[in-house]
Amino acid sequence: MSGGRDSTKPRSAAISPRQAGWLLGLLILVVVLLELGGDVVRDWCRYDRASVLQGEYWRLVTGHLVHASWMHAIENLAGVGLLAALFPRDYSLRQWLLLTLASLVAIDVGFLWNEPQLDWYVGLSGVLHGLLAAGAVAWWRFESSVLAVILTAIFLGKMTYEQLYGSLPSTSTLTVVSEAHVYGAAAGLVAGLLLWLHAAYWLRHRPSL
Fold first, then answer.
1. Fewer Cβ close by (within 10 Å): the C or N end of the chain?
2. What pLDDT is attached to residue 131?
């Protein structure tokens, strides 16, 4: 394998296993509690364009935390677990939160600005695509170039397939809103690159001891 690791990688500042465990546990708890609320909670929390435009802005956040079914919720939580396994030390807790926020905001703005036909949306998959894109950027920085190429090729292949043919075959019968994946991935890519540039700038201008 060719390639090497970026010496600017803040290993000591990376998210710790304890922090990751607490964060993942909290997310699972929130998702499970919301799912237990059934249709009433789902309808009150989902992204609903008409309701958002009438001032129910909480839906811009909660819409990503509720799911159409238990299977949908389990699939998304499995995606979170996969991210935790793939990128355990690539970003700090604050950076992961910033990446999540960037993806969430990009999806919401994209829906409101560019998807007037989308009446409602639920699920975390758009944000997950943003975090995966940021993780791919981190692999280009820190890991083997071969691994980065493989991950990028798989990710781009999935995104391209969704745009050309719709959702991938799966056990879920849901209609996938692929636009959420595009907006999330674009935000994750941009945010990941900005963090990379920030780290490079800091390294170049940090005071010498």
1. C
2. 97
